[in-house]
Amino acid sequence: MTQKGSREATHAYSWYDGDPDTLSNLLDGFLNNVPDTINDSSLPIPGARVVIAPHAGYSYSGPCAAWAYKALDLSQAKRIFVLGPSHTYYLRGCALTKFASYETPLGALSVDAGIIQELRNTGAVFRDIPSSSDLDEHSLEMHFPYLYKRITQTFGLDDPASYPTVVPILVGDNNGAQEKEYGRLLAPYLRDPQNAFVVSSDFCHWGLRFNYTAYAPGGRVGALQKLQRGTERPTDPPIHESIRQVDYQAIEAVESGDHDSFVDNLSKTNNSVCGRHPIGVMMAALEELAKETPEEGKYRFKFVQYQRSSLVEDVTDSSVSYASAYAIV
Questions:
Q1: Phi and psi torsions of 322, nearest 5°
Q2: Distance CA 316, CA 312 (A)
Q3: Which of 38, 62, 147, 301 is least crowded, fewest Cβ atoms below 10 Å from its Cβ?
């Protein structure tokens, strides 16, 4: 199948500013607010070719995402895989874009048609993303302005034709074994130092409107209760602290490098991590490389930032959590 047409930046002027100069300055500001060193390393972190970053509107998650993007090492990148969840239609397996490029207000990024076709030819379940769903989906789009900014910072402004290509992939509602299958399939691409990966995920979506009101009484995440409308406001701990504790258990599971531990954590807490499946696939791919060439400090995510859209006090409130991480490969 030939990739055709350019996907418009459909969320510009709503989820983020569509004016190129304003957007560029905004992203510069977010990135400049990140320290110049993380974990005793200057930024970008050498070899940090994989990041987890949030995908909400930039006014909410842009500052958090900057931590992942400032850590991301694109110095050798020829292509960038972007893995995100589907918010617009139910998906099993994975799905690939049919578009030839993705527009951003800063410029267009070309889709790597060759890699897209290679993935289609693997025999694994790679469907095509329906064009209307691709246009409606934000989990992929929200990363391309940041990527364009970081690409220009890395490679300069003179030759856009030489910029890394992108490989947009939607990851569906797969079980743990299926995530491992896709992880094994992507591991050879991950091994190649010319490939970088962005995993798109927000963390806990808490509130009645998300049908997730889990609460850890006394901070006991193992004894989660579901708060109901009209429940008296809890204070031991406040709800926002309970949310943090639930998220931190998921974050610790991701940092363990053990895909099974992450799947097990989510099955126990039902934490509404919207990018759980893209994270699971990438953890499985990193595990494959760790088995082949175990090396201290590699193949595990390290989280560098955690934020929430608001601090929930009452069951009628809501929040979405954002986290940024990187992995050295």
A1: -130, 140
A2: 9
A3: 38
Q: Taking the model in full, what pTM does it have?
A: 0.97
| Residue 241: CA count within 13 A, CB half-sphere | 10
Is residue 234 one of the residues assigned to a domain?
no
For residues 92 and 86, what is the distance between their CA atoms, to the nearest angstrom? 10
Total number of domains constituting the chain? 1
pLDDT, residue 146, reads: 98
Domain carrying residue 117: 6-208+273-327
What is the per-residue DSSP string for 177-235?
Answer: HHHHHHHHHHHHHHHSTTEEEEEE----EEBGGGTB-EE-GGG-GGG-EE--TTPPPP-
Domain with residue 163: its CATH number is 3.40.830.10
What is the rounded end-to-end Cα distance, in angstroms, of the chain?
Answer: 32
Alpha carbon distance 193, 49 (integer Å) = 8
Residue 154 lies in a domain: yes
User: pLDDT by residue (tens digit) across 109-167?
Assistant: 999 999 999 999 998 899 999 999 999 999 999 999 999 999 999 999 889 999 999 99
Pairing label, strands 101-104, 6-7:
parallel
Q: Judge whether residue 11 has pLDDT over 90.
A: yes
Cis previous bond, 237, omega within 30: yes
Q: How far apart are CA 199 and CA 250, in angstroms?
A: 15
- How many Å separate Cα 142 from the centre of its chain? 10
- 215, part of any domain: no
Partners of 305 in beta bridges: 324
Residue 213, domain member (yes or no): no
Model pLDDT for residues 180-218, shown as the tens digit of each residue: 999 999 999 999 999 999 999 999 999 999 999 999 999
Q: Which two tokens stand for residue 211?
A: 């049908």
3 state SS of 243: helix
